[in-house]
Amino acid sequence: MTKLKMAMVGGGPGAFIGPVHRIAAELDGRIALAAGAFSSDAARSKEAGERYRIDAARAYSDLNALIAAETQRPDGVDFLAIVTPNHLHLPAARAALKAGLPVISDKPATATLNEALELRRIVRAAGKPYALTYTYSGYPLVREARARIAAGALGTVRKVVVEYPQGWLAAEATGKQAEWRVDPARSGLGGCIGDIGVHAFHLAEFVTGLTVTELLADLAAVVPGRLLDDDCTVLLRFDNGARGVLMASQISVGERNGLRLRVYGERGGIDWRQESPNSFVLHHGDGRTEIVKAGDATLGPDAQAASRTPGGHPEGYLEAFANLYADFAKLLRGEAAPLLPGIDDGVRSMAFIATAVEASRSGAGWTPLLIPGE
């Protein structure tokens, strides 16, 4: 099978997520990084190209130059991966899609809800694949939990608790990765809620199959002088009447990447933790507790398709990320990839951010989560 050729915008020297995208995209041998505009500084873009071991002539100084050159090459790239800070997501996606290039983007889709709505119009008009890397939806056991809930293993879902504590921004934000996340000009409307809160929000809806209809938000900028939220608590109401709690924090000292999802139904409950992703606890209504593990013979087709190693051989973040790229490769080859997050997930997530920020700021209490255009 001929490898699909990927271009990347962002991911220059000092970036965290660019190398992650590259490793994930290439893990299964379906995709190869072939070109990039890794930095707006030509020398730094060239340096990144050398580190990524691509043809020096295909390390461009800006995205427009990349698109102009690659769309004219007989061996030009097949799609663009966007791994920049949030404020550059819309212009990069717009330029690529209008040039006929499919797009896979780091989350959130854009910096603001209005930008997300514009991007939705662009995606629909272009008719090209567009995907978002909500990484945690790629874990095999997350997909297994989703399948079991859909099959009725818990009965009617009654309660959803999703938490995502980190501690790395508990003090002054220093360094490239921290500085842009606390800058409204680059991060957008939300701070913590836009960086990790959207992961928690997407995971809750993805696994339960439910949609949030109302929320009550309490967001705070705890660190003195910080302009964007760094600590968030949001109460949720779902479309089936279930209640939920979403907690996201980047000032919780000692926490690393503590994403955890608990779903409770009338007949059972599921508890999954990202820092121990190769199992989840399944509580049965008769008092039994079952530990479901990666590689179990009882796993369904979605989890099995997302697994690469036998049970007992841990798979983690990079493999989950790679599952999203594997799904995207299917889309590009004309196959179905129903679990891959797309533009509608992006718009929902941006509506969640915008609604929570405004509701918290105004003290509005319970507020409907409305999706423009639906």
From TrEMBL:
Gene3D superfamilies given in the database record: Dihydrodipicolinate Reductase, domain 2, NAD(P)-binding Rossmann-like Domain
Entries under PANTHER family matching the protein: CONSERVED EXPRESSED OXIDOREDUCTASE (EUROFUNG), OXIDOREDUCTASE
GO MF annotation terms: nucleotide binding
Biological classification of the source: Bacteria, Pseudomonadati, Pseudomonadota, Alphaproteobacteria, Sphingomonadales
Gfo/Idh/MocA-like oxidoreductase N-terminal domain: residues covered: 5-132
Record-given protein name: Gfo/Idh/MocA family oxidoreductase
One Pfam family matching this protein: GFO_IDH_MocA_C3
Domain GFO/IDH/MocA-like oxidoreductase, residue spans: 142-270
InterPro entries for this protein: Gfo/Idh/MocA-like_OxRdtase_N (IPR000683), Gfo/Idh/MocA_oxidoreduct (IPR051317), GFO_IDH_MocA-like_dom (IPR055170), NAD(P)-bd_dom_sf (IPR036291)
